[in-house]
Amino acid sequence: MTETRAARPVTVDPREIGKFARMAERWWDPEGEMKPLHALNPVRVAYLRDRIAAHFGHAADSGNLSPLEGVSILDAGCGGGLLAEPLARLGARVTGIDAASETIKAAKAHAERQGLEIDYRRTTAEELADSGARFDAVLAMEIVEHVAELDSFLCACGDMVRPGGVCVVATLNRTMKSLLMAKIGAEYVLGWLPPGTHDWRKFVRPSEAAAALRPAGLRVREVKGVAFDPLRGDWHLSGDTDVNYMLLAEKP
Amino acid sequence: MTAQASHHSEECIDAEVVIVGGGLVGATLAGVLASSGIETVLIDREDPDAVLQAAFDGRASAIAAGSRHMLEAIGLWPEAAAAAQPILDIRVTDGRVGRGPSALSLHYDHREVGEPLGHIVANQEMRKAQHRFLPTLDRLLHLAPMTVDRVIRRPGGVEARLGDGRRVRARLCCACDGRGSRLRQDAGIRTTQWTYPQAGVVATLEHEKPHRGVAYEHFLPSGPFAMLPMVDEPPGTHRSSIVWTERRDLAQKAVKLSDRAFGQEVLRRFGTSLGDVRPVGPRFTYPLSGLHAERYIDRRLALVGDAAHGIHPIAGQGLNLGFRDVAALAECIVDARRLGQDIGTKDVLVRYQRWRRPDNLMLVAATDSLNRLFSNNFGPLRVARDLGLGAVNQIGPLKRLFMRHAMGTVGDLPRLIEGRPL
């Protein structure tokens, strides 16, 4: 491990690295603050793996452990890399962007320890789109409900999809059910999320996400619900899109 | 991460899983993982050439149907099939030395379940099959003979320091290093251990009449006496492997008897249904003891097979339990890997432990009580045993359930044991 590290130019203060490694551990503790995202990860990684592999004609059968080989993916709002790392292990060339430089440093520290090559950058979707970056797949997972300008953010995401590519948006629908379950239920009753994590008024209806992607030339192909099974304690795909959902759009 | 790149690296080898211990369980785990696409390094103390050239050493194992399903699924079974004798019938009887088996006996016929109940394979042949199979896997790096100086397990990964100065970096380390597992001790995992007042005598016999695929388990006051059918080798001869539990002092004497006297002792216990018998190859004796680890996992470490549990050989299940560990752990690893997860994290390991530990604990307890129930000469208990065996024989569904247990095809089964792909 020491040899490979020494070969790279040292640009960060080691104390900083230690700080971000600790922060990464918070992101990566399955029982910690990010527990809800960890719980959500299997269903969303499986969905992305199957849909993206199928879209690009890759074998997604059980024998292929790298079904995303060679696919370039942008994870917009990557956080600590909870999604970027699994996608990289499945063979994708992943770029992760986040607006917070501390988060990006934490994500980098974790990926390096895992021996994964992920291109993490502190930037915004708009800046990256303006630079001309293009990807086979652009992901906006559990992020649009936190951005200031939904239309501008999703349009930038759509612009970065290469012709023939896909965009996946995962978020919370703005319905009475989501107000009860995702906001009041998850934050106040179940205590899954710290109160104030979400502002229900910023939740996004599938039609609104579709409208924001349209100017970039994307067409919605599928909207899938994601539901929690309280007995099994896990998440699964469902026909009910009233609370959590994933939307898949293609650029012809 | 690619096998090609790592094979040429002198200093540091990158893999996903590093397996320490290349015995039957470790080599099978390596075969299962590598054939599922997981980059695997197997570190084995023994020289493969020595294994391939070794003469028959007299020991054999029962491969339950469920275990065979797994070996078939990964493509290893064809390598072993020619040396594997199918068990078509198991006859369980109760008896006393010098008399024939009791009239009431339990009789398991493979026609009731539709496939052989299991196979008997000489350990040496199984090892050879593995050594022919492993080099065909391009995701496997088999380092043998090779020692491990130490294994450093960190939150972010494991590193094995090899005897030749090289290092192997991986996400997970699997301890297949046997009963005395150094990795288990280094992890501070405690064990429950116990000893039996018996020793096991293991030998191979040549007998006059063909065995017709019948395995016998004869319960004697000193412990069970098993006669397990082997393939006719050389052709025209008939062989069976015996596992004979006996008081320790007597076991020590038995292995030193002349061939003729040893054959006589066997006949006194087994009867003459296979005609005259004589031992071939070396005879072994080993003390019988049990062991169970208080936990199977630690940071980036999983105990597999004998490193986690050792049971009384009464039911011939030790190796099969190890194979079930292999199938379950491989399933946990591959399922996690398909979701792009780090395969050495706690949630993956916890799933493995929750799956296997209760199952093994049950068999550890069951074989222990089976031994206590049968290893005595207490009159009323003998009658009850005979009636019990006879009763089981009369009740079809109960008997088929017992058979499926012995075949390893009941319970919460890993996909490979059910004969499905991973």
Automatic annotation (TrEMBL), chain A:
Would the keyword Transferase turn up in this protein's UniProt record?
yes
Provide the Methyltransferase type domain boundaries.
74-169
* Top-rank EC class of the record's enzyme: transferase
Any one GO molecular-function label of the UniProt entry = polyprenyldihydroxybenzoate methyltransferase activity
Which Pfam families does this UniProt record tie to the protein? Methyltransf_11 (PF08241)
Q: What is its EC number?
A: 2.1.1.222, 2.1.1.64
Catalyzed chemical reaction(s): a 3-demethylubiquinol + S-adenosyl-L-methionine = a ubiquinol + S-adenosyl-L-homocysteine + H(+); a 3-(all-trans-polyprenyl)benzene-1,2-diol + S-adenosyl-L-methionine = a 2-methoxy-6-(all-trans-polyprenyl)phenol + S-adenosyl-L-homocysteine + H(+)
Q: In which pathway does it act?
A: Cofactor biosynthesis; ubiquinone biosynthesis
Q: Does the keyword Transferase apply?
A: yes
- Binding sites annotated in the UniProt record for S-adenosyl-L-methionine: R44, G77, D98, M141
Tell me, which GO biological process terms does this entry list? Answer: methylation
Q: Give the domain of life.
A: Bacteria
Q: Which UniProt keywords apply?
A: Methyltransferase, S-adenosyl-L-methionine, Transferase, Ubiquinone biosynthesis
Q: Which family does it belong to?
A: Belongs to the methyltransferase superfamily. UbiG/COQ3 family.
* Family matches, as PANTHER family: METHYLTRANSFERASE (PTHR43464), UBIQUINONE BIOSYNTHESIS O-METHYLTRANSFERASE, MITOCHONDRIAL (PTHR43464:SF19)
Briefly, what is this protein's role?
O-methyltransferase that catalyzes the 2 O-methylation steps in the ubiquinone biosynthetic pathway.
Question: What is the name of the protein in this document?
Answer: Ubiquinone biosynthesis O-methyltransferase
Question: What organism is recorded for this protein?
Answer: Ferruginivarius sediminum
What does the record give as the organism's lineage? Bacteria, Pseudomonadati, Pseudomonadota, Alphaproteobacteria, Rhodospirillales
Q: Which gene encodes it?
A: ubiG
TrEMBL record, chain B:
Cofactor(s) required for function per UniProt: FAD
Domain FAD-binding: from-to ranges: 15-334
The Swiss-Prot or TrEMBL record annotates one GO molecular function as: monooxygenase activity
Pathway stated in the Swiss-Prot or TrEMBL entry: Cofactor biosynthesis; ubiquinone biosynthesis
Determine if Flavoprotein is one of this entry's keywords: yes
**Keyword hit for Nucleotidyltransferase:** no
One Gene Ontology term of the biological-process aspect is: ubiquinone biosynthetic process
Q: Which domain of life is it from?
A: Bacteria
Q: Which PROSITE patterns match?
A: UBIH
Q: Which GO terms describe its cellular component?
A: ubiquinone biosynthesis complex
Could you tell me the keywords of this UniProt record?
A: FAD, Flavoprotein, Monooxygenase, Oxidoreductase
> InterPro entries attached here?
FAD-bd, FAD/NAD-bd_sf, Ubi_Hdrlase_CS, UbiH/COQ6, UbiH/COQ6_monooxygenase
Q: Which family does it belong to?
A: Belongs to the UbiH/COQ6 family.
* Name of the protein this chain belongs to: 2-octaprenyl-6-methoxyphenyl hydroxylase
